[in-house]
């Protein structure tokens, strides 16, 4: 008799590491021994949907719903999969793989951020999103949008983060964005700084609190004191091109007293 608790832990670890094939195999072993294991069916539904096996995923979620008719996870995913099946299947995103890098969502203070999008897109677009899928930043005059490689609208960043990133994007900073969680009602993305623009080197893309940003600026000031005047002039020039709202989100004078928390 196999140790189901041990297999369950292995199945969870496989999913955490985006190893969908292993996750499917392990959860199938569980339901062979326990045909009413709700968690295993939910994990199977999720894993098979990540590798675009939507018909199979739908069957697993339907079994889960029979086991527990009030299960919202099963209900939401059945709705999502029905949307997918009711429309012509799009090409599989280039980021979809049976195995993804487990370090994809590795946090780095000041350089990464997970955020829930606002004003999310249409259901037929959201239904196709998968974990680890890369999406693109498109910036408008006052907001930052996220779109698929096919230019389908996914959602927008919250206003405060949009305004801050607009400043960094205008200063030639570069970011990559990946889908971290998605259903028909919510999309969470993971944003990672790839390159910081020269004119905003003194500022964190995603400060966690005022102390962290002040500390960073004080340390840089000590080590680069000879370049302080040049740095101020660069940021003043950048600030001249910003709106009043944008200046609020990136004070250009490097004095700690004038910094405001972004959180």
Describe the secondary structure blueprint for this structure.
Layout: H1 4-16, H2 20-33, H3 38-50, H4 54-67, H5 72-86, E1 112-116, H6 123-126, E2 134-139, E3 144-147, E4 153-156, H7 159-170, E5 174-182, E6 187-195, H8 210-223, H9 228-240, H10 244-249
Helix pairs in contact: 1-2, 2-3, 3-4, 3-5, 4-5
Based on secondary structure, the structural category is alpha+beta
Q: Rg to the nearest angstrom? A: 22 Å
Helix-strand topology string? HHHHHEHEEEHEEHHH
How much is the average pLDDT?
78
- Counting H and I runs of at least 4 residues, what is the number of helices? 10
The CATH topology of the largest domain comes to Alpha-Beta Plaits
Strand content: 5-15%
Total strands: the figure is: 6
**Spatial separation of the terminal alpha carbons:** 52 Å
CATH class of the largest domain: Alpha Beta
The stretches of 5 or more residues where confidence is low (pLDDT under 50) are 210-217, 224-233, 251-263
The shape, in one word, is: elongated
The domain tally reads: 3
Main sheet: which strands, in order across? 1-6-5-2-3-4
Largest pleated sheet: 6 strands, antiparallel
- Provide the helix percentage: 40-55%
């Amino acid at each position: 008799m196999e140790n189901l608790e041990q297999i369950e832990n292995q199945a969870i670890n496989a999913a955490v590491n985006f190893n969908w094939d292993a996750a499917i195999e392990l959860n199938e072993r569980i339901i062979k021994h326990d045909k009413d294991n709700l968690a295993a069916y939910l994990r199977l539904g999720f894993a098979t949907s990540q590798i675009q096996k939507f018909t199979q995923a739908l069957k697993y979620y339907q079994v889960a719903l029979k086991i527990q008719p009030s299960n919202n996870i099963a209900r939401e995913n059945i709705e999502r999969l029905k949307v997918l099946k009711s429309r012509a299947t799009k090409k599989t995103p280039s980021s979809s793989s049976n195995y993804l890098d487990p370090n994809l969502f590795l946090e780095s203070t000041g350089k990464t951020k997970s955020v829930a999008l606002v004003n999310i897109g249409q259901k037929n677009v959201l239904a196709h999103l998968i974990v680890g899928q890369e999406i693109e930043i498109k910036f408008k005059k006052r907001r930052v949008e996220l779109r698929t490689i096919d230019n389908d609208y996914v959602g927008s960043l919250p206003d405060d983060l949009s305004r801050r990133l607009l400043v960094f994007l205008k200063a030639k900073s570069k970011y990559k964005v990946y889908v971290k969680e998605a259903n028909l009602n919510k999309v969470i993305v993971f944003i990672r700084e790839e390159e910081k623009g020269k004119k905003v080197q003194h500022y964190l893309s995603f400060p966690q609190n005022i102390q962290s940003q002040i500390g960073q600026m004080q340390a840089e000031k000590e080590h680069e004191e000879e370049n302080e005047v040049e740095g101020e002039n660069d940021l003043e020039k950048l600030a001249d091109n910003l709106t009043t709202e944008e200046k609020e989100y990136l004070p250009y004078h490097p004095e700690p007293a004038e910094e405001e928390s972004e959180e």
